Amino acid sequence: MTGPATFARPDRRRPEPLWHQAGEALRALIADGTWTDGTQIPNEAKLSELLGVSRITVRHALRNLEESGLLRREHGRGTFVRSSTVIAGVRGLTSFTQEMAERGLVVGSRLIEMAEIPASSEVADALEIPAGSPVCMIRRLRGGNDLPIGIQTAYLPVSRVPGLSAMTGPLPSLYELLRNRYGIAPQVAREIYRVGSVSAEDAELLDVRAESPAFIVHRIAADNHGPFEFTVSIMRGDRYEIRSKLYL
């Protein structure tokens, strides 16, 4: 259960709905570290008292935060902070950095390897280039709020990104770099998700046991000149979810 926390009580004079204000007050406690990952938050009755709003308003706010991936409800136990989980669903074409920011997480990225290599047949097919063509391979450990979430390996044709593999220093958001340095702006991407397991090599980086469940995600991104990126991501099964809303 949480310790003392300062709640920003909703103001009925403001134009925003009370449930929205209540949700932002709770989100702020997660963002500033008052409520850390795994923390059990107060129940609806207590939150209603602390925020000065009805339980229905609190329930609406909690449901939105749960759908955003910041909270998880466990039947018979309560509601817990889940700030290190990425919820994937219907969304625009964004980078991992943007996904983290949209969910209020502090992005973490560690470069494991960057080199120029010949394209394998799989990479070549994805990028629509001849097998053996030079590609820049970028392998990074990605995280949120100082917790590892996945390993991403991106392949880009050297003809589109000359000199990229020779870069030194911290690597910014890949899409930001491509846009600012090479004038490449993604227009469309195709992603394929499948269930797999974490290899022994990746397990140490992801801080899980070998063969732990994972999502394997293949992304091919293209601009008006064709495919420019093929990325293979290994995402921890306990920190990455896919949710969809279905309509009749």
Automatic annotation (TrEMBL):
It comes from the Bacteria. SUPFAM superfamilies: Chorismate lyase-like, Winged helix' DNA-binding domain. Pfam families: GntR (PF00392), UTRA (PF07702). One of its GO terms (molecular function) is DNA binding. Keywords: DNA-binding, Transcription, Transcription regulation. Residues 16-84 form the HTH gntR-type domain. The keyword DNA-binding applies. GO terms for biological process: negative regulation of DNA-templated transcription. This is GntR family transcriptional regulator. It comes from Rhizobium setariae.
